[in-house]
Amino acid sequence: MSKLINKISDRMSNVKPDVLLGFSDSISDVEGLIPLTIGEPDFNTPDHIKEAAIAAINNNHSHYTDSRGVKELRDAAVKFLADKYDLHYDSETQFIATVGVTEALFITFGALLNPGDGVVVPSPAFSPYFNNVEFFGAHSVEVDTSDDGFVLTPEKLEAAIKEHPTIKIVIINTPNNPTGVSYTSEQLKGLADVIKKHDLVCFSDEIYSELTYDQEHASIAKFIPERTIVFNGLSKSHAMTGWRVGLVYGPEEIIHTARSIHEYTATSLPGVVQYAAVEALTNGKDDGLEMRKVYEKRRNLLRQGLADAGIESANPSGAFYIFGKIPEKFGDDDFEFCRRVAREAKVGTMPGSAFGKSGKGYFRLSYATSEDNLNEAVKRIAKFVEDN
Asked: Is the pTM of this model over 0.85?
């Protein structure tokens, strides 16, 4: 190895490679694999959004823009949240468009975290939360939610704050990746009371808000807007993962500081993409609801198939994942279980502990794929469980 390795920033010693991508790569050589691994919608971006992007190219929207996003996008983004979820923001001071929610998390953590700060991460959780926190020299306070229906309770939040007085931020992800579980308005109100009492900030990741099946989507920002950053985007709702559109809403002071980091790292979202996003948020504001119908049908198919095979799972009321409990006879080594399912049953799944310590003994399946694939995957998994 080159001696230049000694020049690498000490900060990076705390940051681990992406576990999800790493595991997915490790089983990608399996011939005939049905991949239920990465959360990538199998729909194409709606045609009217693609046409808006083409029109933007022809209209020469190829220059630098306002770093927050063009006015049309800012106005459309705040109206979208107001119309959909009764959340109200100023498009001039309380919103910024980012290169996906990935960048949004980075710049907002950067705006708030100091070395030694604590961040409550209800676990299991989207794995990049942990690495973002560690990058800035802070530490994750992982709270196990597996005994509470995979939701953070006010009691457990209070206990975490008492044990870790350096906590500054609480992360809420609803609907949740990897479990698909959504918080109710009542549950969020209880958490909001604790967050306000202890003068904390809430990061509310709502990227799957348009894919909520059994209840209306609720946001903790309804209760504590003055201390909540809301993350949303078009990757899941409009099948626009590759367009990288993140939408961030929150208090002016935090958005202002995050904008500075955004300007240093990305300058702005590409202009063509911004005008496609305007189309998605206006004429396509309900595009996600049509996809939701298909996902809900797939959810029911996959969950029932797993239950028939003796695999218990949390009831996913949103997103497009099922978090299954590994049958006792296989033990709780979820990485080994998922490797065997890939090699022997030829179905790609994700180990639960890739999403935190409390995911141990579970595995995640994505149903963002065709019914034919899901039917065949269920047959293969059922046979694997029966034969072993």
From this structure: yes
pLDDT band at 11 (very low <50, low <70, confident <90, very high): confident
Residue 118's DSSP bridge partners are 139, 167
Q: Which residue has the tokens 């189309």?
A: 279
In a domain, 57, yes or no: no
Segment (H or E) for 303:
helix 287-308
- Residues 349 and 339: their CA atoms lie apart, in Å, by 8
Residues 299 and 333 in one domain: yes
Asked if residue 55 is part of any domain, the answer here is: no
Find all residues with CB under 8 Å of 77, minimum gap 6, and list them: 69, 91, 95, 97, 247, 249, 277, 281
Give 189: exposed, middle or buried? Use CB within 10 Å, 0-12, 13-18, 19+: middle
Mean pLDDT of 93-122: 98
Tens of pLDDT, residue by residue over 296-316, are 999 999 999 999 999 999 889
DSSP secondary structure letters along 206-261? -TTTT-B-SS----GGGT-GGGEEEEEESTTTTT-GGG-EEEEE--HHHHHHHHHH
Q: What is the mean pLDDT of the chain?
A: 96
